[in-house]
Design brief:
Blueprint: H1 17-20, H2 28-39, H3 46-58, H4 61-72, H5 77-80, E1 87-92, H6 100-107, E2 114-119, H7 126-129, H8 131-145
Parallel strand pairs: 1-2
Helix pairs in contact: 2-3
Length: 146
């Protein structure tokens, strides 16, 4: 079974083993490769790319080492199953970390009042890749709640 943010148990995870082990944050070159091969659905601006690289390299070594096992592989399905409020799930069409199809199959059935929106031509970094479209989706969702 593929995994998503709620169930990171499968060896067939869409994120490479190297990324899940934290190797993606060891050097500028490894972060750049991760941006290109995993995170971005299209080229980032030079400023956004520099920000992602700096942010990835800035973390404490202990946090970088702990991240894969403590968060990206954590099974939160029991928590997700308890969500009872309207929920907006947003994925990039080209997201290789949590692909839309995986979210459709694994996450959406667990949240009764969830809506999935897919941002075209976007990867896992939607706030950087499509900030205006992302903001519009969130604003539209919130407007529908009030």
């Amino acid at each position: 079974m593929p995994s998503c943010a709620c169930t990171r148990q499968s060896p067939a995870d869409t994120v490479s083993l190297k990324v899940r082990r934290g190797a993606c944050r060891r050097s500028s070159a490894s972060v750049e490769a991760t941006i290109d091969q995993v995170l971005a659905g299209r080229p980032l601006s030079a400023a956004d790319r520099a920000q992602v690289i700096a942010d990835a390299l800035r973390g404490a070594p202990q946090a970088k080492k702990a991240w894969p096992a403590s968060t990206s592989l954590e099974d939160i399905s029991g928590l997700v199953d308890r969500i009872e409020v309207p929920t907006l799930v947003i994925s990039g069409e080209r997201d290789r970390v949590d692909p839309p199809e995986t979210l459709r199959l694994e996450l959406m059935p667990r949240i009764p009042h969830a809506t999935l929106q897919v941002l075209p031509d976007t990867g896992h970094l939607s706030p950087l890749e499509a900030p205006d479209r992302l903001a519009a989706l969130i604003a539209g969702f919130v407007d529908g709640l009030v």
